[in-house]
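Q: How do we represent a protein-ligand complex in a form that can be generated cell by cell?
A: Start from the inputs.
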Amino acid sequence: MTEIFMPTAEVLRSRNEAAEREFHERASQAARSRFGKKVFVRAVVEISNYCRQNCHYCGMRRSNRGLSRFRAHHEQLAELLIHHRPASVTDVNIQAGEDPVAVREVALPLIRALSRETNLGISVCLGSLSPALYAELKQAGASLNILKFEIADPSRYAEMEAPGKLEQRLENIRHLAATGWYVSSGFIAGLPGETDQDLLANFALARELPLGGCSVSPFIPGEETPLATAEGGDMTLTLNCMAALRLIRPDWVIPSVSALNLAEPGSGYRRGLRTGANLVTINLTPSEIRGDYLLYKRDRFIMTEERILTAIAAEGLTPSIQSLSDFYRSKKVNGSHAAPAKRRAKAALQIS
Ligand code: SAM
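Then emit the C-alpha cells for the protein with S-adenosylmethionine bound:
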C-alpha cells in the first residue's frame, strides 16, 4: 500500500538548499507524471472590492475606510472576455471581496453571458455566501468554487478575523462539494506568530476536505492593514508548502499564485511552476479598477499573457488546451461525477 505523504515542520522550514532542490524536484515529477507538461491557463477578473469581512491581513477589509470602493460593470467584462480574451485562456475566475451585491449585480449576469457565448470554464472566488446564492451561481454556469480555509487553527482564525467562523467556512466547503461544485481551497503560509503546529494543521485539514485543488500563498504584509509592518512569509517556506501539497495529492490542481511574484519579483512564478504547480493566472481586470483591488500592495506585479506564456515556455511546459472545468468534469472529484452531455462531448473532442 502506498503511504500517504505528510510533511514535518522540519521539512517545511528547511533551509538546506540541496534537500530543498530534491524535495521540489520530487513534487515537480509527481505533477508531471499526473499532468504531463500541461499547465492550465485561467484569467481572473476582480469585480468588486467591497467586503463585509475584516481579515487582518487583507487590504480590502471593511475597516479600511481609506480605500475607494468599486463594482465592475458586467457588460464591460463580458465584452472583454467574449471578444478580446487572450487565446491561451480556457477558464475565467470571477473574484471579489465578500460582496453579495456584486454577486447579484455583476457575477451572475456575467456568468450567464459567458455560458451563453463561450466555452470558457467558469470559476468563482466570492467568499462565504448563502446556499441559495451558491445554487444561483451554479445554475448560471459556474462549476468551480474557490473557497480558501485561510488558517486551519480555529483560535488563530478568530484572532485574524478571517471570514466569518472557521466552522462555517468548512461547512460551506463541504456543502459546495455535496451540491456538485468542484472545490478548491487554500491557506496562507507565514502569518505573524504562526507556530509549527499552526502550519502543520493546514495540511491535515486540506487532506480531509473534499477538494479538487489547493493553494498556498505567502503572507504579504498588506498596505493599509493592521499587519502592514509585520514580517512577510518567505518564498522558501511557501515553495516547501507547495511541494508538500503536491506530494500529498498528486492529482490536485495547484496554482502558482500571483503573490509569489511579490515575495520574489520576476522569478517567483517560475519557481512555483518548478515546484509542481499546474495552473497559472492572467489578470484581465480593467486597469482603471485594478489599483483599488487591494489584497496586499497597490504596486502589483500584473501577470499578462506575455509574461505567463514566457514563464511556461521557460520551464519547458505548455498551456493546456483542455479547460480546467472540462478536466474536472472528466474526472471523479469531490466524490461526484456529473457532466451535462453537451459539455462532455465537447471535452472529449479536446485533446490537451
Ligand atoms: N472574498 C473572497 C473569499 O473570502 O474567499 C475572495 C478572496 S479574497 C478577496 C482574496 C484572497 O487573498 C484571500 O482568500 C486570502 O487568502 C488572500 N490574501 C488576502 N490578503 C493576503 C495577504 N496579505 N497575504 C497573503 N494572502 C492574502
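The longest strand covers residues 38-48. Residues 70 and 147 are 22 Å apart (CA to CA).
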